[in-house]
Model the fold of this input.
Amino acid sequence: MERGFKLFSSMVVSSALFATASIAAGDAALDKVMKERGLSEADVIRAAKTYNPTGVHDKYLMFSSGGQSGQVMVYGVPSMRLLKYIGVFTPEPWQGYGFDEESKKVLEQGKIRGKEITWGDTHHPSLSETAGAADGKWLVINDKANPRIAVIDLHDMETKQIVVNPVFKSEHGGSFFTQDSEYIIEAAQYAAPFDNNYHPIEDYKETYRGGVTMWKFDPKIGRIQPKDSYTIELPPYMQDLSDAGKRVSHGWGFTNSFNSEMYTGGIEVGMPPNEAGMSRNDTDYLHVYNWKKLSELAKDAKNYKTLFLIPEPKSPHGVDVDPTGEYIVVCGKLDTHASVYSFSKIQNLIKNKDYAGKDPYGIPILDLKKALHGQVELGLGPLHNQYSNVDGEIYTSLYVDSQVVKWNFKNLKVLDRVNVHYNIGHLAGMESNTVDPQGEYIVALNKLSIDRFANVGPLHPQNHQLIDIKGGKMDLLVDMPIPLGEPHDVVGIRASKVNSAVRYPMGTNSRTGEIHEGKTLAGQERIERKGNEVKVYATLVRSHINPERITVNKGDNVTIYMTNLERAQDETHGFTVDNYNVHASVEPGKTSTVKFKADMEGVFPYYCTEFCSALHLEMMGYLMVKDPNKKYESVQKLKMATMSKEQLKAEYDKTVAVNKATDDVIQSVVKFLKDNHFEKHDVVKNLVTDALDQYGKIPEQKKLSDDAVKAGDLEKAVLFENMIWQYMVKTADVGIRAKDALVRLIATKQTPVASKGEIAFNEGGCSGCHVIGKVSSGPDLTGVLGRHENGEKWVADFIKNPEHKYNDPYVKAMIDYFNLRMPNQNMKDEEVKSIIEYLKWIDSNANLF
Ligand code: K7E
Ligand code: CUA
Done:
């Protein structure tokens, strides 16, 4: 074994698994895996830095644009595991987004001039802020292709609102929250006439316009207020990315541009292409505006007085305000420099009216040199910047060089660089462009993945790479393929700041947050008809849909309201009617609606689309669509044989007996839970609440069963008894989960050796015959060490060499009883020792099993 590797094992895993006498064994196992998989020591450290054992959560949540998918993705850092897709501008069937009525209403808000737009090109997600810090409440994202902004509520991660920009024909520099989420900045991209008329390209300078829209946001209710929003009309320079000032620069906005040339191309008429003409000048303009003042002026008429232009090296891209608000860093894209502007210098120039000139539209231009704190040569193709928790530290992506470069924007020194694969666009730090950046990690959002993953055809996934920035040198830890569009930008936030709910108040329309008109509680299920309007008020609860039959006439308009009555976490029911192109995802407490015209005659099963319980397949019903102009003949010719009265009575008695036995099991679990004070542990308490919820439904069913017996209908009584059994199974299912959870919480902690013993016990095959706490195909091993003289040695010998003891009277009796002999599992000494430790641990918790 190499020296370096030894050093690593004592460094990284010392306190966990290999600290005791078994270091050699641990190292050997690790060594074997490393050899087999060709891993270096550095690889193993990186793996350990990003690996989350099962059940361990990530420290950071990342909200990623889904690019051309029009969605948002959520993933965790440092594990880089995908957690969710959120439907935003595009229908998304899993969530019923665009397939139930509530979400269709949200998507409809995104219509442009009456036209339905079912895709989007999402670029820049932005987290709401309070006093400049991410507050974990709202997320907004823009659509570059169709100038729109969407609002996502982080309490349930659903899209609630889409607004369409009334004047832009294209946008890009959105969306960016101001420091108290008063406004969201959205800047245009490709200049176009603000009206909806044709204007010849020759009139570009006169009639085409750029702009910045300041969307008023109400952070209390999380909705954009279009009527209080306004647009700053700008010259037809192509506006690009933006950022809001913060702290000292609060109230100001900064927006980049390219094409100050106002070039309009025309390859087809012999002109050089746009790319040549739009990058001819050495400089373009950084737009500097006081949105706070403008929002006052906007209440009256348009006014450009508080708008200024500062030259910036040509065709810049990212503009990012530092955590203090004093520095504004602009990246060159076609220039190898980053330019650091000083907000106080800008303010002085404005105050002293120290202008270098005016643009053709009369907007004052500030002198570049006088506004600069300085410039730094970073490399080829600098695009975007992120800040860390270290004062002055900034990270910039270099598109052409495929690098992340770390530098200091105060003393203007380059500190470090790391290669990424390949061609990075944005990069994302943790709460990075807020007043409280967390440092720790940078995610590189790479445009190409070329050779990083198995070939899945010419369209490759994108590649997000996690970089550790905690040390002096950046260290690239791991790759994450993104199989869903080009995610331009990602924002990260501490997961602890996001308070997502697990259920809705009963009967909630999740898209509006209000109580749904179709809210239906148990017992209120019904079908209402008015002419050819049929309204179904349905409930969903494990494991049935009520009603189970809906009969309508062909041509009827059918509305089905569904309320999920569950309170248990993660008990979502999905709903579809076959062949009718509807789907809803109904989480606990939610009410959803599907609506369709029953224009096809026939029988259409409807069912729950989430595997919600053991009887999920039975969670179904039939939509029957009759043609009112047809006559239907009954075909009940074949009389089915029925049970005799005695047979029915026997079946009834048997079912009741099974229920009694099942109830005994439940009561024993309940006793255990009570004896061990389950109520002290929230996790267990919640599970018990869920279990009792199911159990509480039994009396009602019992009454129905008893009534049926009284009425002499044993057939029906058996069915109700079966329903009681279903509720008991559901109770027991959750109850046992609660018991297991409680055992784990109150048992004494396993020593490292004992936990290795448990692994050996399970992997070595012992658990195939022995179940702790139960007699199974072998004896219960609780207390086994005390059963024999010199128990530890006896058991160790027996594991290692069972054949020698087959004639021992005790063993012989066991062999006869179980009709099985303990096989030789070829355990190593080390394993046997650890199993003994495990058995000791079992004995110390014997009362729990
Ligand atoms: Cu640089 Cu749309 Cu933010 Cu892409 S943008 S990279
Ligand atoms: Cu409900 Cu499956």
In short: The mean pLDDT is 91. Residues 543, 573, 608, 610-612, 616, 619 surround dinuclear copper ion (ligand 2) (CB under 6 Å). The chain is about 25% helix and 30% strand.
